[in-house]
From TrEMBL:
One of its GO terms (cellular component) is cell envelope. The keyword Signal applies. This is Oligopeptide ABC transporter substrate-binding protein. SUPFAM superfamilies: Periplasmic binding protein-like II (SSF53850). It comes from Spiroplasma corruscae. InterPro entries: SBP_5, SBP_5_dom. Residues 456-480 are annotated as: Disordered. Residues 118-417 form the Solute-binding protein family domain. GO terms for molecular function: peptide transmembrane transporter activity. The gene is oppA. It is found in: Cell envelope. Coiled coil: none annotated. GO terms for biological process: peptide transport. Residues 457-471 have a biased composition (Low complexity).
Length: 769
């Protein structure tokens, strides 16, 4: 995909300064016994929010902070339940199975899609539920929701001048969307163009059946025609991107009274930097399972882990998540035994952070090299750093010599074991739980990558008894990179250093330092200056102290968060930390970002090193008759090898995206592609996950009464969630968790089992009673 918006995870999202407007109460001396016996109003859930809603138009925004509110006021076509299963929200959950059964009466027992798809997954059809109505914020019932209301969203998103966050998801997946977007953009650049002329571009494609969203209001159905086969398409529909909107002419809508709602809740009070109150929507199609009647969000600027805990202790919120960097909270609630928390009201759940991965970018075209305003010395340094990073051995030296645990320990210090790697190190890019193979016992995609690593490095994936264990080489908490270059690429550290010195000499790479080492810059976030940054600097100091090290990493901190964000996005630092989380359930949601024109292009700038547009520029030369050109001043003895690796990735990415007949083969091929990027060519360094191995929660909400999936907006929804009057005790929690484990195993084996709730036509199979 060319652009994904909310998914770039910035480093400064980790910690921040915190103040609360709505409540200044700070708990003092509250006992754990008191908390266990304290009662709450089960009809009211209290939480915090840190950012005001930017838009009340789901065709405009895809910001995660907006989703906290919008996911509860605007419903999506599909959503996810507590088992991670996709169900129909605005559409009928059983439509696909019923239609499949009409074609083959023996087929629907294993049919695990909500809609109907064709053989190559390029067409998907859904049926809207009956009794769908728009509702004003005051509760007034509006007109019926129609499949054609999705066209209203598409019209809005595909006008570039509207600045929609979600337009790239249309252009990446829907037939005709890219053409509409491009033609409209060209028209908008002309003088004197009317809104009618702009609207007519969409109308032309839509009326001639050249647009891939086809509503049928009479049959109450909608069909999506995709530009290529996408077996994971239903996970995309769990976002609001393709959801209906009430009116496409109202721009980005800053005022919630300007629109109508179709979600489980209605906004009743929206005071910026103060308080947001949502109340149950009496006209919501699945209203029978909206158990919590009122949601109250108080404004919290920033979000330190200890502050969310103390707000719960003072009864200002309904719950919190234990964080490994909240030392007092960890000692009070968990103690020294990670698997046996001191506080019996704490329970473990799946973390939505599991799917997100933080990485260290290697930037191959530091834009300072071409910016005279940066000064001659910085231009020279940036040029030499960019040329240096073309060497595979340089990148391998960085990846296998940086002790990631020294940095990641900031997040995991309360749970780590002495002498072992940080439990939150991550060794793959595609996050855990992003994609599983249903035909292979739901084998996680990360295990496919680990299998490739084992095969390529002759690493055994078995335990001492010769049996396969639950652990695997590239799982979180292992460090297969540190001091392991000999096994991975057949060169030890000294051999790498000698090779790097030769590369520097052969390519006349000059140092600006008195010690003649080649300097690489690493920008750090100003918001983590007193928290994460010291740990990062500890890792860098350890690297810089390596004997005979020809490289030197210099960290620096921009003056503001805006500057820091811009430096990363514009590629004005050689190394940079950021992260990604999934948009849908497929490895391509991560791997697409790494292509020449992927979402990370501004951070890694491979498209600036190898540029297709420079055929007639005398300062560039072609690479191996490829149609790609490299600037003469950038070319090194490793340029061809680097291009070969990147072009191979690009080619395989296009090929693998078309494998739709076998999920196993799709994942196997993607895994080889990912392995090569990170462990053959070392183009980027995976760093860590924000998810602890066990995430402990203290909350009045019943465990697993809502979704924990990282993709879609289900994780923010309160539909079906319910609260207990008191926190559950240890025995109650253990009993429930046993039931849930059994139920999860049943659902993993049979998509039709444990169906309970208004989203199912026969939702009486409650496996958690």
């Amino acid at each position: 995909m060319h652009r994904i918006f909310k998914k770039l995870i910035s480093l400064f999202s980790l910690v921040g300064v915190t103040t609360i407007v709505a409540s200044s109460t700070i708990s003092c001396g509250i006992s754990l016994d008191y908390l266990m016996n304290r009662e709450t109003d089960v009809d009211v859930y209290k939480d915090t929010y840190s950012y005001n809603v930017t838009s009340w138009n789901t065709a405009h925004t895809m910001q995660a902070q907006d989703a906290i509110i919008l996911a509860n006021t605007f419903e999506t076509l599909l959503s996810t339940d507590q088992y991670g299963r996709i169900y129909g929200a605005l559409v009928e959950s059983e439509y696909g199975a019923n239609e499949s059964n009409k074609l083959d009466q023996n087929s629907n027992s294993n049919y695990n899609y909500v809609g109907v798809h064709n053989g190559d997954y390029t067409e998907w059809t859904y049926k809207f539920r009956d009794n769908l109505y728009w509702t004003a914020s005051d509760g007034t019932k509006g007109r019926k929701i129609l499949p054609s209301d999705v066209i209203r969203a598409a019209r809005y998103a595909l006008i570039p001048g509207n600045g929609s966050d979600v337009s790239s998801l249309y252009t990446s997946f829907i037939q005709g969307a890219q053409e509409i977007f491009d033609e409209t953009a060209e028209l908008e650049n002309k003088d004197g163009v009317t809104q009618e002329e702009i609207n007519n571009v969409f109308n032309k494609y839509y009326n001639s059946n050249k647009f891939g969203i086809i509503p049928n209001d009479d049959a109450n159905t909608i069909k999506f025609k995709l530009s290529q086969g996408s077996p994971f398409f239903e996970s995309l529909l769990t976002y609001s991107v393709f959801s209906p909107i009430y009116d496409e002419t109202k721009s980005d809508m800053k005022n919630y009274n300007d629109t109508y709602f179709d979600g489980a809740y209605l906004p009743k009070q929206v005071n910026p930097n103060s308080k947001i109150v949502l109340e149950a929507n009496p006209n919501y199609v699945l209203k029978d399972d909206v158990n919590i009647k009122r949601l109250e969000f108080n404004y919290l600027e920033g979000a330190s882990s200890s502050r969310t805990r103390t707000l719960f202790e003072s009864n200002s919120t309904s719950g919190f998540i234990l964080s490994a960097d909240d030392l007092k909270g960890w000692n009070d609630y968990i103690g020294s035994d990670y698997n046996n928390p001191r506080f019996e009201g704490a329970y473990a759940t799946k973390s939505v952070e599991l799917a997100g991965t933080f990485v260290m970018f290697y930037n191959y075209y530091n834009r300072n090299l071409n910016d005279a305003s940066r000064g001659v010395i910085e231009q020279k340094r940036a040029l030499n750093a960019s040329r240096l990073l073309q060497s595979t051995d340089v990148r391998a030296f960085l990846s296998t010599s940086l002790d990631r645990s020294k940095a990641v320990r900031y997040l995991s210090k309360t749970i780590d074991e002495v002498g072992k790697p940080s439990k939150m190190i991550r060794n793959v890019f595609t996050g855990y739980s992003v994609a599983q193979d249903p035909s292979n016992n739901n084998k996680d995609y990360t295990r496919f990558v680990s299998d490739v690593f084992d095969n390529e490095t002759n690493t055994s994936g078995k335990n001492s008894s010769g049996e396969s264990s639950g652990e695997y080489t590239l799982q979180d908490g292992n460090d297969p990179l540190l001091n392991n270059s000999k096994k991975i690429m057949h060169k030890d550290r000294n051999e790498l250093i000698n090779s790097i010195n030769k590369f520097i000499k052969d390519n006349n790479i000059e140092s600006i330092r008195s010690d003649n080492r080649i300097e690489l810059s690493l920008a750090l976030s100003p918001s983590t200056s007193n928290s994460f940054n010291p740990y990062i600097n500890f890792m860098i100091k350890d690297f810089n102290n390596i004997e005979n090290n020809p490289l030197y990493i210099k960290t620096w901190t921009p003056s503001s968060n805006d500057d820091y964000r811009g430096i990363g996005q514009e590629g004005r630092t050689d190394l940079f930390l950021s992260g990604w989380s999934p948009d849908y359930k497929d490895p391509s949601t991560f791997l697409d970002t790494l292509t020449f024109n992927g979402s990370y292009k501004g951070y890694i700038n491979t498209n600036k090193v190898f540029d297709k547009s420079k055929a007639n520029d005398k300062d560039y030369q072609e690479i191996n008759n490829s149609g790609y050109y490299i600037r003469n001043s950038l070319k090194t003895t490793s340029s061809v090898e680097m291009f070969t690796g990147l072009n191979e990735f690009e080619t395989l990415n296009a090929i693998n995206s078309k494998i739709v007949d076998s999920i196993t083969r799709r994942y196997e091929e993607y895994a080889k592609q990912e392995y090569n990027y990170f462990y053959k060519y070392f183009f980027m360094l995976p760093l860590y996950t924000k998810a602890m191995p066990i995430q402990y929660v203290v909350n009045y909400i019943q465990p697993y009464s809502r979704s924990y999936e990282a993709f879609g907006t289900g994780q923010y929804k309160f539909y079906k969630a319910y609260q207990n009057k008191k926190l559950l005790n240890k025995a109650e929690l253990e009993d429930f968790m046993k039931k849930f484990k059994v139920a999860q195993e049943k659902v993993d084996k049979d998509w039709n089992s444990c169906r309970f709730g208004a989203e199912w036509s026969n939702g009486n199979d409650n496996c958690l009673q």
